[in-house]
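User: Teach me something about this protein's shape.
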Amino acid sequence: MNSTEPRPLPNAADKATLKAIANKVILACPGLQDVAHEIASDLLKQHGIPHLDPDHIYFHRFDAAQSSTKTFTGWEHIHAKPSESTTLTQLVIHRFRATDQDNADLLDLYGGFYTAGPDATNFNETNEVRLHGNDVLKSFWAIDFSTLYTDRLTAFWHDSGTDFRTLAKCNFLIKAVQARDKRQLSDEDFQFVTQQVMGPISWPVSLQYLQAEHPGTDSIRTLDVAGYVATNALRFVAPKGRQIVYLPGDTNAFQVLETATDMHYWILQRMNREEAREAFMTHFSLTDRQNITENITDLMNQLVSTWGKYDHHLINQKNQLILGDAFSWLRDSTEAAMFDEAALSLTSNSDLRKKLWIGYLSAGMKIFSPMAVVGWPIALPVIG
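Assistant: First, the predicted structure itself:
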């Protein structure tokens, strides 16, 4: 079908079902920040503070404190800059330090909850939130947010994985049609990319068609930069080397690159400026984003120097085939990326227990190390 020809609309029942599926998936999808905000809000309600947004409540740490009869905690921090700050929402995710567990009584002395951010200089009864650090710490143990969130994530993918895949396929087709209508994809490009992942399209598109899996071809590859593989991008390689990249969620979801040099330059443009790089990095796992950020100067130097030499080995060096249904791959890689984010970001009760025991064992080794030097038989009289 040419882009100028009208496309028959899907039947009303399919359209209504698809809309219901989309609403269900969107509402059920447990974003890490959203769930943490929900739990933090519930915690505030439990402590009689229902009117404040946990994104605008800060837990600050200080190096010193002054006693005060006016504050909730009995301490204030005047003409002071916090040594460390985080929002209550972020604190739900990352938890208090392992060392705080045995020194919870000091959380009110050297820390506190405030509505004023880290740029303020006075922290007292004028901006405090009436929470005791020790009470919040105990609540975190009871909540065990890491387990709660992981359970929600597991349930979501179990219950909604198939629907997520259907929506991913629907979104691809919508974006492809829009790109063709805007002439960002030619008619030939449109036919090429849709044929690879969907096979022939019969208009109007039915819900059954969107739900069906289609075996992909060897033209469908991953996108990678210096070996870091994007988790939610598709790359289509035409027989003569022309490449089309699909980036779901981007304003211009399809990018057409005529040559390997064009691909390299496009990557450089996405990586060179911080704002563009942050948007591009959303297509990679949190682990890879952190590694790229830590090594960005060296990576950019390599990308620039190799581009100047027409050396493109850093771009798509893995060149992995996406085997099977492309939208099933998008679903599975997105699921893996969400669990990766959770594993890196969250601190569970079990993690804290391990850190506490490591601390106890380290302290024990310091006590017993002199005895280890002389050996247990000789050491026994020392403690006897």
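Now, about its shape. Confidence is low (pLDDT under 50) at residues 358-384. The longest helix spans residues 145-181. If you'd like, I can walk through any region in more detail.
User: That's plenty for now, thanks!
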